[in-house]
Design goal:
Blueprint lengths: L6 H8 L18 E2 L5 E5 L4 H6 L5 H13 L8 E4 L13 H18 L3 E5 H9 L5 H4 L4 E3 L2 E6 L2 H4 L3 H25 L13
Parallel strand pairs: 2-3, 2-4, 4-6
Antiparallel strand pairs: 1-3, 5-6
The chain binds iron/sulfur cluster.
The site of iron/sulfur cluster (SF4) has 13 residues, from helix 4.
């Protein structure tokens, strides 16, 4: 797609998108939310039921957990950007189909280009596989740091997967502490007068 000057222009261009069959079953298109200049961007899979109804990503119980995780590292959602690979809800929360991905992912790519985050946290299997172009699962990939197109990519569990699993919640809080360390290291790398900080490849 042609490049845009701003997120507002991109949202306008997406409009009442009918590019894939999910347009027929969605209630609201869920574009994304947060700071257009965020240093940290979260990418999830697709809107769920609550997100579809409210038109905002990560609302409901999973959204509340995400807010708690952000607060644990001194951030709130106005300082980061949150988006999904797909902008409309697949019926019954089924996995996105290849045709839907093909039509929709150029919007995500343009969001990433416009926001230009230093660090991307991929939430769960689907977003992680998409961003890292891999078939490996999140359990194997979480806890590791990747670089894609000059950005740091940190795979973590999807908060929805940890809602009823205390062990996964503990892992998520731990991974957020590490995410903060990656962000801090990225900030130091931006300062020319400071020595660069060695990057971990494994948390
Ligand atoms: S999922 Fe993406 S491509 Fe499909 S209708 Fe929604 S915005 Fe358009």
């Amino acid at each position: 797609m042609e490049t845009c000057q701003s997120l507002e222009e991109l949202r306008e261009r997406i409009g009442d998108c009918q590019r894939c069959p999910l347009a027929r079953t969605r209630t609201n298109l869920v574009f994304g939310v947060g700071s257009p200049h965020a240093r940290l961007m979260f990418i999830g899979e697709a809107p769920g039921r609550n997100e579809d109804l409210q038109g905002e990503p990560f609302v409901g119980a999973a959204g509340k957990l995400l807010d708690e995780l952000l607060a644990s590292i001194g951030l709130d959602r106005r300082e980061v950007y949150i988006a999904n690979v797909l902008k409309c809800r697949p019926p019954g929360n089924r996995d996105p189909l290849a045709e839907e991905m093909e039509q929709c992912t150029p919007f995500l790519e343009e969001q990433v280009r416009l926001i230009d985050p230093e660090v991307i946290a991929t939430l769960g299997n689907f977003a992680t596989r998409h961003m890292l172009k891999t078939q490996a699962g999140i359990t194997r990939l979480r806890g590791r740091l990747f670089r894609v197109d000059g950005r740091k990519v940190v795979p973590i569990y999807h908060p929805a997967a940890a809602l009823y699993d205390r062990t996964k919640q503990d892992v998520l809080f731990e991974d957020f502490r590490r995410l903060k360390a990656v962000l801090d290291a990225a900030a130091d790398e931006q300062k020319p007068s400071q020595p660069s900080v060695e990057q971990p490849t494994l948390f």
